[in-house]
Amino acid sequence: MSSTYLGLPSFPVAAAESTRDEQLRANLRHATHTIRAKRATAISELTDWPELRAAGAAIKDHTLAHLDHYLLQLEAAVTAAGGTVHWAVDADDANRIVAGLVKATGETEVVKVKSMATQEIGLNEALAAEGIHAYETDLAELIVQLGDDRPSHILVPAIHKNRHQIRDIFSRQMAAWGRPAPDNLTDTPADLAEAARLHLREKFLRAKVAISGANFMIAETGTLVVLESEGNGRMCLTLPETLISVVGIEKLIPTWQDLEVFLQTLPRSSTAERMNPYTTTWTGTTDGDGPTDFHLVLLDNGRTDTLADSLGRQALRCIRCSACLNVCPVYERAGGHAYGSPYPGPIGAILTPQLRGTTTELDASLPYASTLCGACYDVCPVAIDIPDILVHLRERITEQRRGHALERAVMKAATWVLDHPSAYALARQTATRTRHLHPTELPAPTPAKAWSNARDLPRFPGRSFRTWWKDRPAGEAPHGRPAREDTTR
Amino acid sequence: MTAADKASAAGSSREQVLGRIRAAIGDAPAGEVPRLDPALRTYRDTHVPDDPAVVLDLLAENLADYRAGVHRCTPEDLAATIARLLAERGARAAVTPPGLPRPWLGAIAGTEVIDDDGTLTAQRLDAVDSVITGCALAVAETGTVVLDAGPDQGRRVLSLVPDHHICVVHAPEQVVSSLPRALPRLDPRRPMTWISGPSATSDIELDRVEGVHGPRTLDVILVSSPPRSG
Amino acid sequence: MRVALFLTCVNDMLYPQTGRAVVRLLERLGVEVDFPAGQTCCGQAQYNTGYRRQAEPLVRRYAEVFDGYDHVVTPSGSCVAMVRDNYPRIAARAADEGRDEGLAGAAAAAVPKTYELTEFLVDVLGVTDVGAYFPHTVTYHPSCHGLRMLGLGERPRRLLQAVRGLELRELPGAEECCGFGGTFAVKNPDVSAAMGQDKIDNALSTGAGVLCGADNSCLMHLDGMLRRQDAPLKALHLAEILASTEERPYMAAETTGKIR
């Protein structure tokens, strides 16, 4: 993955800092709670939501199970329609292909539609190294690019910024990148959108090369589909002469008709709309309409490794709606940057360690960035069982990584005790007998200290349940005992 | 790297990716053509009753909900409706695709009509106030009009760069209730734009505001004959 | 009907009063309850932390210990979810690895007879008014496992609403996780505490004197925060409220003071 994300701290370390950022917490809380209620309303309009969800999962699973077949079908259809298909095994491969295609046009500027795949491979940085300037045109991506920031949300990469902060970034930075922000720019969203419209229009009108991703690729027809709201996607997909689309191989679906499922589930899950304002579909090139040169770069970059895990491959169903981020209590408090990848939140916690592996502290900490509360699974429009995959990846980490030796020994010992009732009884009795020596907080840097920083330790009870049970007269009537002893906590 | 090396490297990436996929999923039986079990499609074909009037009302309601201007008229009133919308807008110039029926434009006064001959540049279109198009289809449940670059819709750029889009929908023949009913009527080999309201963004605090790069005003004219009496 | 109490390890170690409350409640409703002494733990901590194979002996133990009972009742939603959702997975994954070792049979035996307390009361016994008396204001935190995995729905609230003297107050953001998450609380202590703080702030905003839950592991986390902050709110398991009657009312605990 991109060098942007190298050397970042582990999730708990980054999250410790972000949870203390009151402004960030307030911005995230406001945004995620706004969209949660709207999403629930949008979905309640469809009485067959569970059936649509199951069908979406089934279509994706079916495609993944025959991925080679469908990719070859796609390649043939795109080629027949006048496009050129390239295959990239990893980020370097993809960046090299794209940079070569741009250089072949003689251009040094490209406009971009928001694309997770190109963030994942660090395309902008790779192009910059080749002297090519990439302009992000999605409003939130523009905010991130002008602010020299990193995206923190799949749908709304600048979710961590509120309107006042966005106004400041526009006023300060737009001039250095092109048309300056209007004087006295206010922080009303309509004025901010207008400023972005004016700033980017000159870039759209002169652009010769555009780079996009795609939400879906249709194998039978070679059609690519991009859903968007602002019209920047239409600008990029329609005006330039050359269009280069970098798309993960898992974005495939078999047939045009299959869109009937995803065009119902994606907008409602994503922006909580019945339908997003604009969807563009194109098949190769069309005489007299849109780009004359179309290149499709099919990206692996860890996807086949993910596919090889029969449980973890569910993550490849993902249609990048971001509903799981919006309901995640951990994401809401830690923020997107703590996940150290373009894919934050619950989906990132299962996707990133599969795409990148678990060799870094950060990537190995991601599967633990969840309480397994299950809210993500409930809202997922393709029914990815995120908690189940999190646990599965934890297992992979405990088996493969050093640094879990102590925890492994503790778990093993615990299981032995729990599987030997006499040892279990002894442990329980010891804890009870020494209860008056137990402190309510601990000084040393131990897991128990992590607990007692914010909470008192639980008190061990004076009398165990088993003693009470054993001492109970046989056939004791329900009201036979004084109540006081029942209240020891 | 020579051109030949590049070609060979590209070939090897393709073979590597396909090889990894086959290793990951296990080899499917040779010659098998995969087909998704149709029994998995248990969702509904439509969510509205098969009544053209109900479907048209729903389309109007959903278009308006996403801030499109909705105007209903009879075929006889279409030209006057288009002329009125251009006049209200104060449009000095409007572009039309080459196959737009000329009678639609018969009542326009005070707006220059520019017929697209395929050479208008985006820069030129940026100075045009309005665009008038037909559509391929409209979807009631989602409040969507679909343009497929047909003769009365023209190149995609026409309905993109001007800030005001007037889109004419003929009911009931161009209106379907749902997405499952829309897709079989569209040819994916044609470039398409699905439009549901004017451009919008949720990028500021995840709250929707209308109006970014695409046309900030979308007027949809729903043309239908009045129900016959008796 | 042979009914066994599965106390769970957390309650066995730390919350015996919850176990006693379940026994008294069920006996009051005419159920004969047994407590098989060989029981220990469902294996949730091992499984959720990534030590699936360490949970396997506990799957077998669970099935063995509760062999012969018609119903196993436990006052912990997360332990029921462990049995119901994860025991079959543990067996299936062992099978994928070419092993069985009695796991498939153990899971198949355990799943259908394991009930969370409110499920047992409402679905098996068919009662919502258990004859309880608890003259305090209460707000209810549904806990993730109860809410999403088990789908307990309105059962706990219906039981609480039928308690005489009890005033139930809506908890804002009730569906949100409290931030405990087992080892999450120590692996991600800052996020866990931030979530816990929001939960107790919401609970305090109701003005209730009791924060009720049906899972003591969540309550241990919340109670630890409440005690650290000396907050005027007491965390209490639902079973203890349902066990309280006019003849034998619940009395405030020795360590945490009275309910306001």
What does the secondary structure layout of this molecule look like, with pairings?
The complex is a heterotrimer of chains A (489), B (230) and C (260).
Chain A: H1 11-18, H2 22-44, H3 49-65, H4 67-80, E1 84-88, H5 91-105, E2 109-112, H6 116-120, H7 123-129, E3 133-136, H8 139-146, H9 163-177, H10 189-206, E4 209-212, E5 216-218, E6 223-228, H11 232-238, E7 242-248, E8 252-253, H12 259-270, E9 278-283, E10 293-299, H13 303-307, H14 323-327, H15 329-334, H16 345-356, H17 361-365, H18 375-379, H19 386-400, H20 405-418, H21 421-433, H22 447-452, H23 465-471
Helix pairs in contact in A: 3-12, 9-10, 16-19
Chain B: H1 3-25, H2 52-65, E1 69-73, H3 78-89, E2 93-96, E3 112-115, H4 122-126, E4 130-133, E5 137-139, E6 144-147, E7 164-170, E8 175-176, H5 179-182, E9 192-195, E10 200-201, E11 209-210, E12 217-223
Parallel strand pairs in B: 1-12, 2-3, 2-4, 4-7, 5-8, 7-12
Antiparallel strand pairs in B: 5-6, 6-9, 10-11
Chain C: E1 3-5, H1 9-14, H2 16-28, E2 33-34, H3 44-49, H4 52-65, E3 71-74, H5 77-96, H6 103-113, E4 114-116, H7 117-124, E5 137-140, H8 144-149, H9 155-161, E6 167-169, H10 184-187, H11 189-205, E7 210-213, H12 216-228, E8 234-237, H13 238-243
Parallel strand pairs in C: 1-2, 1-3, 3-4, 5-6, 5-7, 7-8
InterPro entries (chain B): FTHF_cligase-like_sf, LUD_dom, NagB/RpiA_transferase-like
Pfam families (chain B): LUD_dom
Protein name (chain B): Lactate utilization protein C
Q: What's the pLDDT, averaged over the residues of chain C?
A: 94
Radius of gyration of chain B: 23 Å
CATH superfamily of chain B: NagB/RpiA/CoA transferase-like
CATH topology-level fold name of chain B: Rossmann fold
Kindly report how far apart the N and C termini of chain B lie: 80 Å
CATH architecture title of chain B? 3-Layer(aba) Sandwich
Kindly state the number of beta strands of chain B.
Answer: 12
Query: What is the gyration radius of chain C calculated from CA atoms?
Result: 18 Å
How many domain units of chain C?
A: 2
Relative strand content of chain B: 15-25%
Strand order of the largest sheet of chain C: 2-1-3-4
Find the structural class of chain B using helix and strand composition: alpha/beta
Keywords (chain C): Oxidoreductase
Protein name (chain C): Iron-sulfur oxidase subunit used in L-lactate utilization
InterPro entries (chain C): Cys_rich_dom (IPR004017)
Domain Cysteine-rich (chain C): 3-83, 138-223
